[in-house]
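Query structure, 407 tokens:
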């Protein structure tokens, strides 16, 4: 009979350690985030209130923001069973080049305000995951620095037309020289949307020091620590003159821009042009007639015109009107991979997400963005499998129905 050996301490120790004990506190928190909503909760704790609210909020009473989100809640999937889903392929092509999923990281201004790792962190994750990322004109990293940070990534440049057309031309020239693949012309911001949270919080760009911001910062020391221990924000596009977001927009953006400017851009830029911020069939037709290769059905995440149309609801009509001549994307309120799948089933070539990756960034820098990407991409694949679909091109409107009872 063999004696039972007593286990050694060294063998027991790993079993007694809490799961993930070798991870840093940030990594542990990120690993425990199972959804984008969880990342949002972490972001809210870490970022100063004014920064979180700028990211999270919308215009006016935030009706457009709420409706954009709720539209996804009305989706009811119609899964097909007994289909072989052992291999699910979420790849697609966007603007004629491969992407690992029908997903794009949307342009977001002042990204290094959310976390000092900022745009380079977002671009590196996008490059690693094989999805495009659009750098904003209002970015806090220059066109060239971002290209250097993620040289192998699919980089698009988002253009706001400025009063100073020389500056707009300069952005186009620099984006071309730095190897950006496409321009995204945002057309829904002739003036700033009324962001009431920003007014109440006294937000300025860059954030200025006042009693309120000092207290806000003191309550969120990790964010301040990061800010103070990295190089100052570059604010690629700005002349470093402080002001509110609305003042900046009023000073820089051209409210007189028309479809003729799109025609000008078409002649100045040889690559693909994506027009972002279209909400009607009429405008979709007009911009495609003027040379757009893709349109983004978008209400700017509910941040511009409050009570503007809900993108997911407008999407099918725009696909019907221009889908044979241009790619149609959608954004606003997308918080999960199953939202992305629903948008694609309703005809979108891809979905853009803004806040979803920004919550990750605020929660934990590049690792937080990676967590957001892992969650979204994992959910895209699992939703496809559960729907009985193995290819993006097989997603159809009859994979879902839209509930009218709002539940
Ligand atoms: C903090 C923040 C900043 C944004 N900045 C820009 C910008 O500079 N240019 C732009 O075209 N859109 C901008 N957007 C809008 C996004 O590109 C996108 O349309 C929107 O975030 C989609 O909604 P979602 O955040 O619910 O995904 C911004 C959105 C957020 C949340
Ligand atoms: C208005 C810009 C300055 C940035 C933007 O597009 C946004 O905050 O939604």
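Result returned for the query:
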């Amino acid at each position: 009979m063999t004696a039972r050996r007593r286990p050694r301490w060294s063998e027991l120790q790993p079993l007694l350690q809490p799961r993930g004990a070798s991870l840093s506190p940030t990594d542990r928190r990120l690993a425990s985030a199972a959804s984008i909503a969880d990342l949002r909760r972490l972001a809210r704790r870490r970022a100063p209130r004014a920064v979180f609210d700028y990211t999270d909020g919308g215009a006016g009473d935030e009706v457009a923001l709420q409706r954009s989100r709720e539209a996804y809640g009305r989706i009811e999937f119609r899964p097909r069973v007994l289909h072989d889903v052992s291999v699910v392929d979420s790849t697609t092509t966007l603007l004629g080049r491969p992407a690992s999923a029908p997903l794009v990281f949307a342009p977001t201004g002042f990204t290094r305000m959310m976390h000092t790792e900022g745009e380079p962190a977002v671009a590196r994750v996008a490059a690693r995951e094989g999805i495009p990322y659009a750098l904003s004109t209002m970015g806090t990293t220059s066109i060239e620095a971002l290209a250097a940070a993620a040289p192998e990534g699919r980089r698009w440049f988002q253009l706001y037309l400025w009063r100073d057309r020389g500056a707009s031309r300069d952005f186009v020239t620099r984006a071309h020289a730095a190897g950006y693949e496409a321009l995204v012309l945002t057309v829904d911001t002739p003036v700033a949307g009324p962001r009431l949270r920003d007014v109440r919080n006294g937000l300025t760009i860059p954030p200025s020091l006042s009693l309120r911001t000092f207290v806000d910062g003191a309550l969120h020391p990790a964010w301040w620590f990061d800010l103070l221990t990295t190089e100052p924000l570059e604010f690629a596009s700005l002349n470093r003159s402080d002001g509110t977001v609305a003042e900046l927009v009023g000073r820089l953006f051209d409210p007189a821009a028309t479809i003729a400017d799109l025609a000008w851009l078409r002649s100045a830029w040889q690559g693909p042009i994506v027009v972002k911020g279209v909400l009607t069939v009429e405008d979709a037709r007009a911009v495609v007639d003027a040379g757009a290769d893709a349109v983004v059905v978008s209400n700017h995440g509910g941040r511009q015109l409050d009570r503007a149309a809900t993108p997911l609801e407008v999407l099918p009509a725009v696909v019907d009107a221009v889908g044979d001549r241009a790619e149609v994307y959608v954004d606003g309120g997308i918080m999960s991979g199953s939202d992305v799948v629903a948008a694609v089933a309703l005809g979108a070539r891809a979905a853009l997400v803004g806040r979803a990756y920004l919550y990750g960034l605020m929660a934990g820098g590049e690792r937080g963005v990676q967590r957001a990407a892992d969650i979204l991409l994992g959910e895209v694949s699992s939703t496809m499998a559960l729907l009985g679909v193995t290819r993006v091109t097989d997603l159809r409107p009859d994979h879902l129905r839209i509930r009218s009872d709002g539940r």
